[in-house]
Amino acid sequence: MSIKLGVNIDHIAVLREARQINDPSIIDALSPVKLAGADQITIHLREDRRHINEEDVANIIQNSPLPVNLECALNEEILGIVYDLHPNKVTFVPENRKEVTTEGGLDLSKSEFYLRLDTAIMAMKEKDIEVSLFIDPTVEAVRGAKGLNVDWIELHTGHFANLYAMLNTNLKRTKHSIKELNTQRTLLEKQLKKSLTDIQNATNEAKDFGLKVAAGHGLNYQNVKEILKTEGISELDIGQSIIARSVFTGLERAVRDMINLINAK
User: Which residues are in coiled coils (predicted)?
Assistant: First the structure.
């Protein structure tokens, strides 16, 4: 089974917002991503609009030659924007304004949130928009998603990525070292193995329920080979590492390099 690649282009808007001018233009990213062979454009409209804004969303949906996956929180204002702009797919994610990036999956155990999510999903379905839930890679989270009428789940791979980086890169010797993971290699190896097992078990559970499975967060050119060993994943959503490489290689080449790694599995 071939694995599709969604390219998250949020970090182009991060560069733009750093100087508060329309340079680089996020629209300019659409063509090289398509030419490289990617399957989807992914963007995240956050409540604080720290990078992508509603004008970006409208322009990208109108001009993208590829399907658009819009990540967003369960926020009434943003839901209204989604209903009006009609992306191909919506991925519901949790959101914390103090976070640097999304730190975990949706908590589906809270009954009030679950009911609000169910209502939003039904509204998306009426618009013929595919729906995905960004969840932690646990069997319990997958079972929580089962009762909702979604097409996809996306497994949060951030914990895996952190473990991999602490074990296989120089991260632990820098100021960005992850304190709670600053432990012996043997323990990190066990934790990494368990993390990959959890991802596989969650994928198996989702496939048994008839859900399509995506994975994303923290994936890069080094660690993606481990995720590709998971049987049953249909899509990877990758952003920061591709945009970071593109600074040196150009965006089309950076996307193509990732696609080559995926196809070489």
Answer: 164-205
